[in-house]
Amino acid sequence: MITFPNAKINIGLGITEKRSDGFHNIASCFYPVNWCDMLEMIPAKTLSFQSTGIEIPGNPDGNLCLKAYHLLNEKYDIPPVQMHLHKIIPIGAGLGGGSADGAFAIKMLNDMNQLGLSIEEMEGFATELGSDCPFFIENKPVYVTGRGEVFDTLDLSLEGKYIVLVNPNIHISTKEAYSGVTPTPLSVDLKQLLTSSINEWKGNVVNDFEHSLLKNYPVIDNIKKSLYQKGAIYASMTGSGSTVFGIFDDEIDLSNYTEYMVWSGKLD
Length: 268
Ligand SMILES: C[C@](O)(CO)[C@H](O)COP(=O)(O)OP(=O)(O)OC[C@H]1O[C@@H](n2ccc(N)nc2=O)[C@H](O)[C@@H]1O
Ligand SMILES: Nc1ncnc2c1ncn2[C@@H]1O[C@H](COP(=O)(O)OP(=O)(O)OP(=O)(O)O)[C@@H](O)[C@H]1O
Known about the structure:
This protein is of the alpha+beta class. It is 28% helix and 28% strand.
């Protein structure tokens, strides 16, 4: 079985409160984009994992695909699989790529072994893997609060809009990025803003990580400015960086981003 775990962007990201468990409460819109990894699992005699494509830092035993397997195996004693991840989504990039791999692994193992898990049960397992993981179970635009696992429907469709994602090859650690932010309650009704016209977003829909990170990494700031110069209706850093996205009505010329990792396409 093969699947294509996709990235997400954060449209607006309020970091509202530091929690007693060390995490932060956030408020954001998570929106799927089709920049994808490839994940294959086939039944095997022993459990194994290999990855190709972009090199993944750290020990392969800590890969979220394997962690997903162990999580389900603990409870359901599932047979071994051979896993192959072809990594394409930039890492430490605010795109939730690792989280998508973990969540898709849960969904694949559920299907392959006919575990019959509900969406809520899979989201519960995904939350154990990471804060961004549960979103990728349903994988549709939502308004998110809590640590990233509380979902509220959002009447927002950007279908047909053209999106450009530019990653300046900088790896930003999520933990460090959170430690550089002072949590503040939302000063606007983010959910309402998101469901108003996209033309209202510029300057109003804010990612709280930008304040510190755009100062520390001028290249991120410059990419954001260049996307606006190219006519973006809205541009922002996603998650804890370092990727910046711009939303446009039509395709744009990408020739001045050749030194970066870039993905563009229409939103679903
Ligand atoms: C920045 C976002 O991508 C926005 O969607 C997410 O909040 C990050 O989610 P993630 O990469 O899945 O992060 P996790 O693997 O759960 O946590 C990594 C570290 O980030 C910090 N962290 C993460 C999520 C959160 N809501 N509050 C936090 O403070 C914690 O220090 C945690 O130890
Ligand atoms: N499947 C995976 N893909 C990428 N990184 C993984 C994966 N599994 C585990 N990791 C570990 O997670 C670290 C990256 O986590 P990090 O949260 O910074 O990035 P991310 O998962 O690409 O998404 P984001 O930047 O949005 O948080 C890597 O350095 C690696 O050690």
